[in-house]
Design brief:
The protein has 241 residues and is of the alpha+beta class. It is built from 7 helices and 11 strands.
Length: 241
């Protein structure tokens, strides 16, 4: 049994690589009883890439359930009746999709890069943190406290900036209340998250609600614009004493 996200990922790594596909459904039947349902449909699916073609015919069987007033598919089974052509087209399509990934995959990878960065900070894994930066990466902090840099430019500068993190930060959490906000550009990630970090030099805890705008190119962060409350930062780090 695979999750909906796993199925979407599996399809997105192959289907966009075809030059064309056609799925023709017919003989659709449905039975509904209270909050459960069953449906079936005959299907003929054609797949084209370059000069090659593969066609399958069979039947889809669906199990459905009503969820908060809406019908959702809980399972889908395909029974193959016949096929023509060559399944080799799938490998060709997968390679084409790898070279030119679908926006769904680009968005997934961008979000994973952001998650790698935040969990790296939580675990004090500086190898993971350093690995996310592009060579020309920029971190902007529009509300940095007075006397602190509000922009850091370049991977090496960012590595130096975060180098002392394990000695400054104790227990840290950035992902417990992490919310990804959809954007049109799959390479751009906006997240809202709460941060709780014990600041070892002061013995205080920095509690923030952050907004983070990330731009990710091929698994590397090129821009991280971080929004936070400078007053809480100053209190936790003992800057206003």
């Amino acid at each position: 049994v695979r999750s909906p996200q796993a199925l979407m990922t599996e399809w997105a790594t192959v289907l966009p690589g075809f030059d064309a596909t056609r799925h023709a459904l017919s003989n659709i039947k449905a039975e509904v009883s209270a909050d459960e349902g069953r449906a079936s449909a005959d299907v003929v699916a054609g797949h084209w890439i370059r000069a090659q073609y593969w066609e399958v015919a069979g039947c889809y069987a669906y199990e459905l359930a009503r969820d908060d007033g809406e019908w959702k598919i809980t399972s889908m089974t395909f029974s193959l009746a016949r096929e023509t052509g060559s399944r080799d087209v799938c490998a060709l399509a997968a390679e084409a999709a790898r070279l030119d990934p679908a926006p769904y995959i680009v968005r997934q990878n961008a979000r994973q890069t952001v998650l790698d960065f935040l969990t790296g900070l939580e675990r004090k894994d500086m190898g993971a943190v350093n690995a996310v930066w592009a060579d020309d990466a920029v971190q902007d902090m529009p509300f940095a406290p007075a006397g602190w840099d509000n922009q850091i430019v370049g991977r090496e500068a960012l590595i130096r900036q975060y180098a002392q993190w394990p000695t400054i930060a104790g227990a840290a959490n950035f992902t417990r209340h992490l919310v990804f906000v959809p954007t049109l550009d799959p390479r751009t990630v906006f997240v809202e998250y709460k941060g709780e970090v014990d600041i070892l030099p002061t013995g205080l805890t920095n509690r923030q609600t952050y907004g983070g705008l990330f731009h990710v190119e091929v698994g590397k962060i090129t821009l991280f614009r971080e929004y936070f409350d400078p007053r809480e930062f100053e209190r936790a780090f003992g800057l206003n004493l």
